[in-house]
C-alpha cells in the first residue's frame, strides 16, 4: 500500500478522514484528561492516537508496529507485567480499517491474497475439525481461538505487504524487536540481575543445565529458553544480510549490533535446539553469501571474542548432544531431558496411530499424555508433558490431515520465496533478492529448532508464514508488471523505479 498523497485519485476523501480522526483524537484526549488520573495511561492514549493517524496515512507504518508488537510478545508482556490493556487487538482492528480505507476509498485493493487464504484456511478448518476428538474441550476451544487470532494476523500481513518497500520495513522491524529484548538479556546475564524481570522483558529462571547441575537460563519475554532461542535464530541471517548490504554506515552498525546481541542471547539460553538451529543457519548463510576472505576473518575474530562471554557450563551442556552419535560411550537415556524427550516423542506416535486422521485434538497432547506414557515406560514422571516437537505435536493433535495442511503451507512458503528471489534478481533488485534469501534461511532455522520445540508460542511462526507468503506474492505481482513494461504492454510503474534507484545508490 502506498502513501496517501495529494495526487491520489480519491483525494477528496483525505481531508474529511483526517478532520474526523483529529476530532476523535481531541475528544478521546479530553476524556482521558478528565477521567484518568494516571499520567502514564494518558501518555499511552496520546501516543496511541498519534500512531493511529500515522497508520491510516501510511499503512507500512502500521505493518511495522504489527511486527514489532507481536514477534517478541510485547503486548502479552505489557498485559501480564504492567496491567496494560491489549495493544495488539486495537492495532489489528485499526489495520483492518486501514486496509478497507485504501481499498474502498483510494482504489488500492490488496492483490494476491486468495492463495494464502486457501492455504491458511485449510489448516484452520482441519484444526477446528480436530476439536471433535478433543477430550479437553475447554483447552481445545481456547487454543482454536488463539489460532484464529494468529492466522488473522498472518492474513493481515499479506494484505498489507503489497510493494517492494514493505519487505525492507518488515526485515528491520524484526531486527529492531529482536534486538530490543536481546540487548536486555545480554545486559541481564552480564550483570547477573536474574531476579529483575525488567518489566517482563527479561525473564529468567533456574533450570537444569546438565546432569544434576542447575543455573539461570535466559527466557526473554517467552518464559521458555528454547522458544526464545528459536525466535532469535531467525534474526541471525537477517542481521548478517543487512550488515553486508545496507548502504548507510549507521544501518550497518545497527545490523552488526543486532547480530552480536542475538547470538549472545541464544548462547545465554543454554538451548541445545537453539544451538543446532544456529549452526544450520550459520552454515546456510555462509554458503549463500560466500563472504570475502577479509569479511570471513573478521567474523572468525568476532566469534572468538564471543567465546569469552560463553557460560562455563555451556560447552558441557552441548557435549550431551554427542550421546546420540554412533559409538558414543554415554547413553542418551542417562540424560534426564533426553530420556523425557524420547518418551514424549514415542507417546506422540502412539496418539497418531490411535487417531490417524484428525488427531487427539488441538493442544490435547498434554491431557492424554499420562494415558499413553506407561505404554512407553521410559520416563517415570507422572505428570502432564508437552510433545517438545512441533511436527509430532501437529501429527498427534491434528492427524494426517493436519500434517498435510501444515506441509502445504511450508511447501508454498519455500517454493514461493525461491521463485521470488529469482524474479527479484531478474528485475535487478539484488538487495531485495538478498533479503528474501535471508528470510528463507531464517525460517529454516526456526523449523530446525521446531524438531525439538513444540508450538507453545505459535504467533512468531504465523507472522513468518504471513511475511514469506507476502514476499512471494509481492514478487509475483511486481514481476508481472515489470515484464509487461519490458514488452511495452504496461505503463511506467513508480514502485519498481524507486526500488531500482535504491539498488543503484
TrEMBL record:
Tell me where it resides.
Membrane
Q: Which keywords, in A-to-Z order, does the entry hold?
A: Membrane, Transmembrane, Transmembrane helix
Pfam families, from UniProt?
Answer: Wzy_C
Gene Ontology cellular component annotations, sorted alphabetically? membrane
Q: Where are the transmembrane segments?
A: 13-34, 41-67, 87-105, 117-134, 169-190, 227-244, 249-268, 274-289, 296-314, 390-414, 435-453, 459-476
Membrane topology, as annotated: Multi-pass membrane protein
Give the protein name, as stated in the record.
O-antigen ligase-related domain-containing protein
Amino acid at each position: 500500500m502506498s502513501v496517501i498523497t495529494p495526487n491520489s485519485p480519491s483525494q477528496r476523501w483525505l481531508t474529511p478522514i483526517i478532520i474526523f480522526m483529529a476530532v476523535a483524537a481531541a475528544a478521546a484526549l479530553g476524556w482521558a484528561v478528565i477521567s484518568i488520573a494516571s499520567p502514564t495511561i494518558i501518555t499511552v492514549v496520546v501516543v496511541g492516537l498519534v500512531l493511529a493517524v500515522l497508520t491510516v496515512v501510511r499503512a507500512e507504518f502500521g505493518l511495522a508496529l504489527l511486527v514489532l508488537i507481536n514477534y517478541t510478545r510485547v503486548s502479552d508482556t505489557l498485559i501480564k507485567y504492567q496491567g496494560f490493556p491489549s495493544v495488539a487487538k486495537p492495532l489489528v482492528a485499526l489495520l483492518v480499517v486501514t486496509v478497507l480505507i485504501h481499498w474502498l476509498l483510494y482504489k488500492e485493493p490488496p492483490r494476491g491474497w486468495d492463495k494464502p487464504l486457501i492455504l491458511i484456511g485449510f489448516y484452520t478448518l482441519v484444526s477446528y475439525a480436530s476439536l471433535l476428538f478433543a477430550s479437553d474441550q475447554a483447552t481445545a476451544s481456547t487454543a482454536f481461538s488463539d489460532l484464529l487470532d494468529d492466522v488473522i494476523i498472518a492474513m493481515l500481513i499479506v494484505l498489507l505487504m503489497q510493494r517492494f518497500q514493505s519487505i525492507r520495513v518488515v526485515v528491520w522491524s524484526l531486527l529492531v524487536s529482536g534486538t530490543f529484548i536481546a540487548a536486555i538479556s545480554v545486559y541481564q546475564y552480564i550483570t547477573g540481575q536474574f531476579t529483575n524481570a525488567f518489566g517482563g522483558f527479561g525473564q529468567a529462571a533456574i533450570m537444569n543445565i546438565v546432569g544434576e547441575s542447575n543455573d539461570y537460563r535466559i527466557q526473554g519475554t517467552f518464559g521458555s529458553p528454547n522458544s526464545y532461542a528459536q525466535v532469535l535464530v531467525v534474526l541471525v541471517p537477517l542481521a548478517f544480510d543487512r550488515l553486508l548490504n545496507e548502504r548507510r554506515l549507521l544501518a550497518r552498525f545497527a545490523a552488526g549490533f543486532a547480530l552480536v546481541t542475538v547470538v549472545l542471547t541464544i548462547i545465554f539460553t543454554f538451548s541445545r535446539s537453539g544451538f543446532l538451529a544456529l549452526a544450520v543457519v550459520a552454515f546456510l548463510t555462509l554458503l549463500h553469501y560466500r563472504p570475502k576472505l577479509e569479511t570471513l576473518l573478521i567474523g572468525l575474530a568476532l566469534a572468538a571474542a564471543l567465546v569469552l562471554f560463553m557460560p562455563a557450563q555451556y560447552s558441557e551442556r552441548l557435549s550431551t548432544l554427542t550421546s546420540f552419535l554412533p559409538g558414543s560411550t554415554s547413553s542418551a537415556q542417562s540424560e534426564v531431558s533426553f530420556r523425557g524427550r524420547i518418551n514424549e516423542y514415542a507417546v506422540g506416535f502412539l496418539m497418531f496411530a490411535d487417531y490417524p486422521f484428525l488427531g487427539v485434538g488441538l493442544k490435547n497432547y498434554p491431557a492424554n499424555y499420562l494415558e499413553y506414557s506407561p505404554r512407553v515406560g521410559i520416563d517415570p514422571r507422572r505428570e502432564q508433558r508437552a510433545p517438545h516437537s512441533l511436527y509430532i505435536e501437529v501429527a498427534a493433535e491434528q492427524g494426517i490431515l493436519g500434517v498435510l495442511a501444515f506441509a502445504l503451507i511450508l511447501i508454498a512458503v519455500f517454493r514461493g520465496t525461491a521463485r521470488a528471489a529469482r524474479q527479484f534478481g531478474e528485475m535487478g533488485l539484488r538487495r531485495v533478492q538478498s533479503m528474501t534469501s535471508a528470510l528463507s534461511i531464517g525460517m529454516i532455522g526456526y523449523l530446525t529448532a521446531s524438531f525439538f520445540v513444540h508450538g507453545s508460542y505459535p504467533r512468531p511462526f504465523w507472522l513468518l508464514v504471513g511475511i514469506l507468503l507476502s514476499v512471494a506474492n509481492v514478487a509475483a505481482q511486481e514481476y508481472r508488471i515489470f515484464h509487461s513494461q519490458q514488452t511495452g504492454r504496461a505503463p511506467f510503474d513508480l514502485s519498481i523505479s524507486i526500488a531500482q534507484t535504491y539498488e543503484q545508490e
